[in-house]
Design goal:
Elements (H helix, E strand, L loop, with lengths): L11 H8 L3 H9 L6 E2 L5 E2 L2 H15 L5 H8 L15 H11 L4 H8 L3 H8 L7 H10 L25 E4 L3 E5 L7 E8 L14 E8 L1 E6 L3 E6 L3 E5 L4 E5 L6 E8 L10
Antiparallel strand pairs: 1-2, 3-4, 4-5, 5-11, 6-9, 6-11, 7-8, 7-10
């Protein structure tokens, strides 16, 4: 009997489905030395969220930049295969399930509100798939909560957080959200790291106001599919959260690093557990 993958870790078939390639392609990339997945005691390949980021980048380099294996290897360099510094990664799936159950919604009721299928939402809740930033935001709004409740917030507020203390949410494709404040009740302050070509994967809206400051790289932001802005390193950008907004890292080979602050005036989502 096959062992189920650990939460947040995908088998080769699951990883292939998330990235949008075949399992044989992932094995080919492994033989070429582009990735090095771990293996369990039964020798099954296991892919972490960080390795999914690398796979997403490889696919972009192959499909968008039309690079061969040698070109992809050069574009990745050693940095592409090095693990991200260890930080506590919050398990997103079980928390989304808890919020849905608290809202009294079945999978079939919750999924359409986020624009996904019930089967996909079920896979996300079981940590067999990862949701995009837009899907996470829409689900939180559907449950009457906010994204802060998806982190493991401490009972005691901490004014100071060191780099190794920040909690992390991993969103698909290739977006890491690191919580910069564990004590604020109206501010969602996060450090976003978006892999090349990664972004929100859809638009979302909610109450509040937002400020984005680009530390590195560049992103494009659309508001209501009407206004379009290109932000580069050093740029800051403010907008009303009620505007439908989506964004993407426009670079094919450079990570975008952003400070993203959202002000929410109140609501049910700020209660402490």
């Amino acid at each position: 009997m096959k062992k189920r993958p650990r939460a947040g870790v995908l088998t080769v078939g699951q990883a292939a489905a998330v990235v949008g390639v075949s399992a044989s392609t992932l094995r080919l990339w492994e033989r070429a030395g582009l990735v090095a997945p771990a293996r369990n005691t039964s020798r099954y390949r296991l892919y972490t969220p960080e390795e999914l980021d690398v796979l997403t980048r490889i696919k972009s380099l192959r499909d968008v930049e039309q690079l061969n294996v040698a070109g992809i290897r050069q574009a990745l360099g050693d940095r592409g295969r090095q693990p991200v510094a260890s930080r506590p990664v919050t398990s997103l799936g079980p928390r989304l399930r808890t919020l849905r159950q608290r809202a009294g919604l079945h999978l079939a009721q919750a999924a359409p509100r986020a624009g996904v299928s019930a089967s996909f939402l079920s896979a996300v809740e079981r940590s067999l798939a990862t949701a995009s930033v837009a899907t996470v935001q829409r689900l939180a709004a559907a449950y009457g909560r906010d994204v802060l409740e998806l982190f493991d917030l401490p009972a005691q507020r901490n004014r100071l957080l060191g780099p190794g203390d920040r909690q992390v949410l991993q969103a698909h494709p290739g977006v890491r959200m690191e919580l910069l404040s564990s004590g604020a009740t109206h501010l969602e302050s996060m450090l976003f790291r978006a892999a090349p070509r990664a972004g929100s994967s859809g638009a979302y809206a909610h109450e509040g106001e937002e400020l984005v400051y680009v530390l590195a790289g560049s992103i494009e932001i659309w508001l209501d599919e009407f206004e379009h802005y290109l932000l580069r390193a050093g740029d800051s950008f403010w907008f009303e959260s009620t505007r439908g907004h989506r964004w993407v890292n426009v670079s094919a080979n450079e990570e975008a690093v952003l400070i993203w602050v959202c002000w929410r005036s109140g609501g049910a989502g700020h209660g402490r557990r």
